[in-house]
Amino acid sequence: MQYFESDYMEGAHPRILERMMRTNMEKNPGYGVDTYCTEAREKIRKACHCPEAEIHFLVGGTQTNATVITALLRPYEGVIAAESGHINQHEAGAIECGGHKVLSLPQHDGKLSAEDVDKFINDFYADLNYEHMVSPGMVYISHPTEHGTLYTLAELEALSCVCHKHHIPLYMDGARLGYGLAARNTDVTLPDIARLCDVFYIGGTKVGALFGEAVVITRPGMIKQFFSIIKQRGALLAKGWLLGIQFDTLFTDNLYMQISQNAIDMAELIAQELQERGYRLLAQPQTNQLFVVIENEKMQELSKSVVYSFWEKYDDNHTVIRLATSWATRKEDVVELLKLL
Amino acid sequence: MQYFESDYMEGAHPRILERMMRTNMEKNPGYGVDTYCTEAREKIRKACHCPEAEIHFLVGGTQTNATVITALLRPYEGVIAAESGHINQHEAGAIECGGHKVLSLPQHDGKLSAEDVDKFINDFYADLNYEHMVSPGMVYISHPTEHGTLYTLAELEALSCVCHKHHIPLYMDGARLGYGLAARNTDVTLPDIARLCDVFYIGGTKVGALFGEAVVITRPGMIKQFFSIIKQRGALLAKGWLLGIQFDTLFTDNLYMQISQNAIDMAELIAQELQERGYRLLAQPQTNQLFVVIENEKMQELSKSVVYSFWEKYDDNHTVIRLATSWATRKEDVVELLKLL
Amino acid sequence: MQYFESDYMEGAHPRILERMMRTNMEKNPGYGVDTYCTEAREKIRKACHCPEAEIHFLVGGTQTNATVITALLRPYEGVIAAESGHINQHEAGAIECGGHKVLSLPQHDGKLSAEDVDKFINDFYADLNYEHMVSPGMVYISHPTEHGTLYTLAELEALSCVCHKHHIPLYMDGARLGYGLAARNTDVTLPDIARLCDVFYIGGTKVGALFGEAVVITRPGMIKQFFSIIKQRGALLAKGWLLGIQFDTLFTDNLYMQISQNAIDMAELIAQELQERGYRLLAQPQTNQLFVVIENEKMQELSKSVVYSFWEKYDDNHTVIRLATSWATRKEDVVELLKLL
Amino acid sequence: MQYFESDYMEGAHPRILERMMRTNMEKNPGYGVDTYCTEAREKIRKACHCPEAEIHFLVGGTQTNATVITALLRPYEGVIAAESGHINQHEAGAIECGGHKVLSLPQHDGKLSAEDVDKFINDFYADLNYEHMVSPGMVYISHPTEHGTLYTLAELEALSCVCHKHHIPLYMDGARLGYGLAARNTDVTLPDIARLCDVFYIGGTKVGALFGEAVVITRPGMIKQFFSIIKQRGALLAKGWLLGIQFDTLFTDNLYMQISQNAIDMAELIAQELQERGYRLLAQPQTNQLFVVIENEKMQELSKSVVYSFWEKYDDNHTVIRLATSWATRKEDVVELLKLL
C-alpha cells in the first residue's frame, strides 16, 4: 500500500526523536521557560530577521488559529478569510466558539485578494449601519493555502498594505509554511513574511515535528498577556520543552528547509510524470499537494493500492483526488506510486 | 417631511399606552409571572390553535434570536440561514458571540428553499470529515423575510418536512409577522406556523407595541429552563407585565391583525399608484415594504421631503430605495407621499 | 394587601407616561440617535459635572452589567466583586456566559473594601504563577449595595485610588443610585461618582422609569465601538427614544432626586416606628430597604396582608424579611403597613 | 541540584519513547482512528471493567477539563467544585471562558463532601429565585486532589449517590490518578471509579507519558458528537496515534501502576525520614506530594541545592513547601535530597 493521503502520517524527523530520547530524563521547568525553548526562539528570530519577535509554542493548528484570532480581536470584530480558508471550513466552528464571525470573501486559487479585502472594508464603512454589523478586525490567510497555492511577494505586500491602511492586523496560518518557502518558484521568504505579517505561525506538525506550531508576534507586546490566553484556551503544553527541542532541531542546520525541499522534489517528480502520461492536474502544482483529475473507474482500482484524499467530483466520469508528499516521502514510494498510476 | 423609512418610528398603538396609563400604579410581581402575561399567553395560544405552547416575552429581535438559537443548539452546531438573513447580516455577530456559526445558504427572494437545505445537510453528512465541520443544528427563517417576501404554505411545509427528516428544529423570526399574516395573497395562517415551526416569535416592536416579542415554543419543555437562559442573556424584563399588557392588548379584539392590515393597505395604495405612474418596483410587493427603482436625481430631490431607506445601487443612474408602511401609517401621509413622488 | 416586596412593582412616574402619550405618534429615528436621547445625555452630563461623558441607554440591569463588563475586560481578565454582589449571585451567570470569572471578595455590610482589593491584587501578582490564574481586570461595586448600604466618600475614593494604582477601571452598578444619592447621611454626590468611577450606570427601572439604565463612560472613547457591543449583546432598544424620553424627564426639574427622596422618607417613617415598637433591624437602614427581624409566627400572620421579601433565616424562631419602599410608595401605604405590623 | 518541584519535569517512560522511535516512520491515519488508539482503548476498558466505555485521548489537563465540562453542561448550568479545585484556581478561567460559572464549596483536605454538595443543591432549589441563579449542573472532583489527598470509597460512593439523586453527572479529574490508585491505604480502584463517575480522565502527562489524558465516558453516547467538541476546542491531536501508543504502553504489563508505585515509595521514604528527623508535615502524605513545614532560614539554604514548590506561608518564621516525587524519581535522588534536608 502506498500512502499519499496527507502530510501528517508519520511521526517526526529522526533527529527530533533522537534528541528527545537523549534528553528524556533531564529535568526541565514546564510551560516553555526552559532553555530549549529559549534557544529555539532565538533561532527562529534569526531566521525571520526579526530580533524583537515574541515567540510562543502551541500544539496544533486549530488551537493556534483560535487562540491567536481571539487574542487579536475585540468582541465586535470578525476575521476576514477566503471562503475556502481552514478556519471557515474545517475547524468545527472554533472561531465562532470563541465569539467571532468569519467574514468570508471569494477565494482565487485558494487565496484572498488585496482588492477584495480593500473593497469589502471600504463598503463596510460606507454603510451607514455598519455598527449593526460585524466589523472587519483582522485578515487571515494561509500560505500555502488549502489549495496548495502560494501568494507572490507582490500579493502579500498588497495585502499587508491594505491591512495597515485599515489599521487591522494580518495573520498568516503557516501550517505548511516549510513547503511554501521551499517551493521552486516562490519569491516569498521567511523574513518577508515576518516583515509583512503582524502575526504568523510556522507549522511543525506537517513539516517534520511530532506536533507543534511556533507563533511569531512580530511586534512584541502587541498581544497583552498572551501566555494567559494560551493557558485559558487549553493550548499550553505542560512539558513545553518538548516543543522547544523540536523547533530548535528544525531550525538547526537548515533542517526545516531541507526536509521541506524533499516534499517539493517528490511532488514535482510525480507531477512531471503524471503530466507526461496525460493526466490532467487541476492546477500547476506549487507545493506538496497535487490535485489529479482521474477517471472514476481508474480511481476505484487505484484505491486498492494507494491511499489518497478525495477532493471533489469533477464530472460524471471523473473525480479530483489529492496526493500529498511530505518531509518523509521517499523516492522509492514515489516510484512505486507511479507504477500504480 | 414624510417618514417612510421603517416600521418602528412611532410608539405604540394608543390602546396599549392607554392601558399602561390606567394600570400604571398597580403593583405587579416582576419577571412575567403576573396576570397580564398569563392572559396574554392564553390569548396567543388560542390564536395559534396550540393550547400547550410555552410562551415567553422578550424585549427585542436580536436578543430574541440570539437567546433562542443558543438555547436550541448544542456547542458544535450552527444555524442554517439565508445569506440575507437578519442574523447573518445585521445583528453585529450576536449568534457568533453566543458561540455558533451561521451556515448561510443562497437566498431566493430572501427565502431559503427546502431543496437547498436538504441538499446541504445531505452533502454535509456525506463528507467523511463532517465531524471536523460545523453540524447543521437548526434552520432559521424570517417571515416576512428581509426582502418583504413571504413563504407559501407549500414552501413552509417543505421546510418543516426537511427539518423533521433531519431531526433539527425549524425556527421562524416573526419580527414583522403581523404584516405577513395580513398580506393579501398569503395562504399561511398563524396556526399553520405553530404547526410547522418548533419555535417562532410574534413581533411586537414593529407591529404596534412599544417593544416586545412573544416567543412561542410549540412543544412545551423542548428547551429546559429557558427562563434562566433568558435571564442570563440579559433578555428578561424586570417589569414583565409591561410585555403582558402589550401582547394582551394586541391579541384582544383582533387588534394585531387589524393594525397589520392597515400597513398592507397603505403599501398597496402606494404600490398601485407608483406602478401606474411608471415606477419600477424591484418585485411585486407582498407585505409592507416597497423597493422602488428611482433615478438618482429624482432621489436627491425626494430626500428633501421624504425619509426613506437606501437599499442598493441599481445602476449608474438608478438606486433602489425602500419605503415601509406600518400599523401607524395614515392615509393622509400616503397621499402626501404620492404628491412628492 | 400592602406591597413592600421590591422597588419595581409599579410602572413609571406619571410625568414619564404622560410624555410618552403626548409624543407617541411622533416619528423618531431608532437606536438612540433621536433628540430626546441627545437632550437626556446633555442633562445627565450636567448633573454629573462631566461635560465629556459618553452616555448610552440600555434596558435592564443584568444586561447592562454583562455588556459593560465584557466591554471592559480582556479575555484573560475577571471582575472583582463582593461575594454578595448582584453579578456574583443573581444574574444567572451572565458574566461567565460572557467568558469572565467573578473574583469574589468578602463583603462588609455588602461592600468591598479598598484594603481587600489592594491586598488581593498585590497577592495575585506576588504569585509566581499568576499567569495561570484569572487576572483582576476591573472592580465592580454597587451603590447602594445589595444590602441597601452606601459607600462613604472616603471609601469610594480609596477604591478609586486602588483601581488607578493598579491600572484597572472601577465600575459602579447604580441600579438604585437615586436612593443612594437621596439618603440622609451620605456624603457621596453624583459628580463624586463621575469623578471616581470610570464607568457607572444610573438606574431607571427601580427609580421611576418603566425600564432603562443610563451608562456613563466618564472618559469618552474608553470603550471602542461600544454601540456595536450593545447591539451584539441584544441590549440595543430599537425605539431608543423611549429611553431618551424617560431619562430626559427624570433629569428635568430634579425629578430623579425628588422621587428618590420619597422612598427614603417613607423608609425612615417605617424604620423609626418599628424601632420605637421594639422591632430589631438588621442594620441601621441607609436607603430604601429595611431588613427586619421578625418572629416566625408573626411573619406567617403578616404574610396574609403584606407582600415582603424573604431575606434569610435569623434563628430558629426568627426570620429576616426585607421591606422596600420606592418612588411610588405613598404615605397611606406606610400608615396601613404600620397598622399591620 | 535536586529537583522535587513537580511531577512533570521529565519526558516519558523509556518504553514509550522506544516504541515511538520504532514506529516513527509507519504511516497512520490521524485523529485517533488508528490501531494504537483502538488497542489502548480496549486495554483501558478492561482495566476499568467497563466494556462499553467511550474513550477519547486529549493532550493536556486544562484542555480536558474545559472540553468535558462544556460538553456536559447546559448554558445556564455551572460546575460544583472545591474552592481549592484546579478549575477554580489554576486554569486561567478556562471554564468561565467556556461560559460556565464554577460554583465553589469549601474544601476539606482538598476534598468536596457529599453533605455539602447535597445541602448546596437542596438550598439552591429551595430558593424561590433559583432560576435567576446558576444551576448546579455537575460535580467536579480531583483524585488525588490538589492537596495530594484521596477520597475513600465511602466518600466517593456518597458523592456519586448525591449526584444521581440530583440527576447531575460526577466528573473526576485524574491528572495524577496513577498516584491515587497506587497509594498504600486507598480502597478506591479503577473499576470503582468507572462505576461511580459518569466521566473521568486518566492522567498521562504527570504519570509517565510525554503528554496526554484519556477521557473515559462510562456510558457511551452520553455526550453527543464529543469528537466535534474536542476538535472545536482545539484539543484534537492531528497525530492521534501518538496518544494511542502512549496509553497502550502504559496499560500493557501493568506499567501505569508500576511506575505510579515508584512515586509512592519514594514519597514514603522521604516522609518517614523527615518525620523521624522532627520535620512537621502539613498532613500525613497519601500520594506523591509532601507538604513540609520548614523554617524560613533553612528554606533559603535549601533553595541553593533543591528545587521545590512554594506552597504557602505557615507563620512568620515558617513556610510550607511542596516536594513531589514521580514515576521518574530515583532512589539516589531521594538519598541526595535527604542529605540536604
Structure characterization notes:
4 copies of one chain form a homotetramer. Chain A is α/β, with parallel strands linked by helices. Chain A has 2 domains: 2-7 and 257-340, Aspartate Aminotransferase, domain 1; 14-255, Type I PLP-dependent aspartate aminotransferase-like (Major domain) (Aspartate Aminotransferase, domain 2), CATH 3.40.640. Chain A is built from 14 helices and 13 strands. The first copy, chain A, has helices at 14-22, 35-48, 61-72, 86-89, 94-97, 114-126, 153-165, 177-181, 190-196, 226-232, 241-250, 255-276, 296-302, 331-340, and strands at residues 2-3, 54-58, 77-82, 102-105, 135-142, 170-173, 199-203, 213-217, 280-281, 289-295, 306-307, 309-313, 318-324. In chain A, the strands form 3 sheets. In chain A, strands 2-8-7-6-5-3-4 form a 7-stranded mixed beta sheet, with helices on both faces. In chain A, a hairpin with a 4-residue loop joins β12 (309-313) and β13. In chain A, α1 packs across α11 (241-250) and α6 (114-126) packs parallel to α7 (153-165). The radius of gyration of chain A is 20 Å and the shape is globular. The two termini of chain A are 13 Å apart. Chains in contact: A-B, A-C, A-D, B-C, B-D, C-D. The interface between B and D is medium-sized, with 16 and 16 residues.
